[in-house]
Amino acid sequence: VFLLWWFFIGFFSFLLQVLNEKKLQEVDSLWKEFETPEKANKIVKLKHFEKFQDTTEALAASTALVEGKLSKNLKKILKKIVAKDAHEQLAVADAKLGGVIKDKLNLSCIHSPMVIELMRGIRSQIEGLITGLPAREMAAMCLGLAHSLSRYKLKFSPDKVDTMIIQAISLLDDLDKELNNYIMRCREWYGWHFPELGKIITDNLTYCKCVRKVGDRSNFASSDVSDILPEEIEEDVKAAAEISMGTEVSEEDINNIIHLCDQVIEISEYRTQLYDYLKNRMMAIAPNLTVMVGELVGARLIAHAGSLLNLAKHPASTVQLLGAEKALFRALKTKRDTPKFGLIYHASLVGQTNAKNKGKISRMLAAKTALTIRYDALGEDTSAEMGAENRLKVETRLRLLEERGIRRISGTGKALAKTDKYQNKSEVKVFDPSGDSTLPAVSKKRKIQEMEEQDTEVVVKAKKFKAEMKEETTKEDDEPVKKRKKKKDKAKQAEEEELLSEEPPTSPTVEVR
Q: Where is the Nop domain positioned along the sequence (predicted)?
């Protein structure tokens, strides 16, 4: 007889006992035994039933079961069963959980396709096997525990830590904008007092540190800034401070400028700390994406898509154009060329190529990046080997485009491709010396004779054409005259016929003697 542990997604747990083991051998037809509650009660019956005290206890038991661990309640129940029915076997749906039960309680467990079919049948007839529970209450308990379990998974899921990356990269961009505004204001403000310092010191952070330490430009001669500036630049600053054309400012103005410099230095230090944090988080969550395009570009891609999982759903063509949506739709609307890259343009592999090959490299980089994103989002491995291999392939392709070499890209990109021996098939062309002569090939007399003959031919043709035109015009003029004569003759004939018809008949004359 099999004993079956079954954990129902609700606020209770129960144990079922198998009554007829022979019918379990036919796995394909086992579903027929669970078509009705009456048939199901002939196969299994309720052995033990226990209710959880509250939602927390049910949530703890369900999470332990999902993770393949042995909860306290399950351990107590199984110990009671082992004490009573030690010879029985336990059918479990999770092989990992069965191994834990066998190790801790020394209870034989079974996991097979038959057990899975049995679980499916019990799930379909659970209301008939456990009496006294209305269907509405059971559905409410299932829904409540499902919501609690979902909240627990979302709270502790490592996939949701990418929200930290989104917030960090957004804050990093905001800090860059604020730093630029603060530094521009500091240079412009202190430039009224010492304008030459801005041209000598180009680094913004060094400029603010120098202004904070010295203050008024008259103090440069007596102050030591060797810990901030090199010796050559320090001498130039001191020499420029003596002959500066800046205006004099009060001590209160200098204090406000120094306070602004303190803000710039603090924000710069915090930005460096935030960048290190972002770098570590990216290597922990998306190591392959970080290897392919870098921390900043990878974080911006995740932030633009909303999450790492959403980014994994995008095809390579979308990854290539993320961040260039406005340019894409503008090009489609105006029927012009579409953009070739978006945020991926800032990747180091695209930046180190020439302008001619940027489109090809960005397309290949986007294809490999899409693979690494899916590997990071859906894979269980946390190593960056796949990203390193794909980056090597892109770099090999980049060298091939730049050097026009004959190395192949497939595999590791180290082997030389087999090529045929080059044979020159150029055609030999003979020089035509006739093009070098500037003298006319025909004499002048012959040319004049030809011109005269041509003129005579033209004159004869013109005369013939005029004669033909005259003949045509005369024919056209004669035709209407002939027609008129014919009409007149016809009219005369008609009149004569009428006169003859009108004359009376004459009687024959008789001579009288």
A: 285-403
